[in-house]
Amino acid sequence: MLAEAELAGKPDLQSKSGFFVPTATISAESLAHLLEQFLASAPHAVAVEEGSVLFDFGSARYSVSGEGKCVLHLWSDERNTVRRVLDAEVKDRSLRLQVLRFGQSQPNVLEICADRDPRTGTARRAARMRYQSLLECVLRREYPGFRLEQFSSSPDLEHSFSPVYTRGLLRAGQSAFAILGVNSEETQPSVDAVLTFGILWMDYQRQHLAGRAVVEGLKLFVPPRSSEIVRQRAANLNAEAAKWQLYELDERSAICESIDIADSGNIITRLTRAVDVHAARERFADSIARMQALVPAAEVSVETSSQIVFRLHGLEFARARRTPEPGSFRNRESIIFGVAPAEYELDQSSDALFRELVQRLCQERQPGGWQTNLFFRLAPERWLESLVTRDVRAVDERLDGRFVYSQVPAFAAADRAMLDVLTCTLDGRLAVLELKANEDIDLPLQGLDYWARVRWHQQHGEFTRNGYFAGRDISSAPPLLYLVAPALRVHPATDVLLRYLSPRVEWTLVEIDERWRNGVRVVNRKHPAKATSLGATF
Q1: Which CATH number describes the domain made up of 380-533?
Q2: At 418, is the pLDDT very low, low, confident or very high (cuts 50, 70, 90)?
Q3: What is the pTM of this model?
């Protein structure tokens, strides 16, 4: 559909002070195209109105409709909002919509920000400086015998040090600890990633101070009630490689509470029950036949007994679901379509829009497509996942292609996680596959997080009880962990992070050919033993 430059060139729109100003009214089609382009490149976008975040598009959905008047409908589990759109502007990393609430005559601004943190750069820097001063005072109070050095929150791209975190060093003689903290105004994903950046900072200090001081370990400081993911990951690090210490720091009271990471069995997580795929496919046979007639290559994924998803090369474009009819004991089957977060119900009025979407998908989402094309770029990891689940033995011939589960829901605390791929080896050993299509510094510890959840469910008999691996004897040995990514897109910090995983985590870094869309082909594998022979320490 239409990018910003394309919209600016349309005959019914003209540019004025950065705004796209319609000669009459911006059309629903043009707005839908603009939203699609913007949100596709901003998966963490939020909608902000009057200074408050109304919607997070990680879970929220939208649709655009109207004849003559452009009506935007936004909804989530928490709220439902309808606005008439008068004007639209793309500026920096936000989409500013001039909107009217129904029953009001004066418009206001609804802003869709590309980042979950809608604060200005100045506000973020001010919050981080306040936190840096607080953390410095707390450390001087709690560790009077230590000297505080290299305290900073300045970015250092060369060494992957983010400005999100305050870092420093506590030193007493030849003994030292690396310090890393994150303030309460940062996002939860930033808090969860604190261990990744803490390890890199500690490892850097060990190299920098080699021969002059011993960096014994890492002290992490996170906001209250936000440490569960960090604690779980830290529990599965190598306890002999460093002293891992985690604290929750209340910024109002300046009180620190130590968090025990030693109890690796204490994981708050639950597993959803495996769905009877055969029964669900029979139940939705008509919808499946209808979709595959339009898109023969469509992948059918059974999410629940009452809902199935249709994808093309991993990109969801429609789902069929059964819901109770009001005032009746019967269920109604409907098809919802759109590339998230767009969502429309398929009926006579939307059939043309659906066929246009399907036609574009079939033309543009192909292995030989253009890198700049919207549908080609979307959901690369789901595309990779679709290839791996189709032939999991391309990753490792030991894996059993008869038992492959993708996007397995596994909940931990308030976090709703999805395991990329869960399978087992031919001799019944569980295997967790974490996939990344692009460079991601958090790959090793995110994989470790999922490995820990699978291990917990395995030890508690959850897989058998919930219908996974039916008829298969599962080994009691710890799961294998596969980290799969294109060879040229493995983050340079990955080797450092892998050195600090617990020896009980048997991992393999699988590097695949860059042209993986044409088929997954492994070009290199790394294992702990191989890394050790190259000089790494585990």
Answers
A1: 3.40.1350.10
A2: low
A3: 0.87
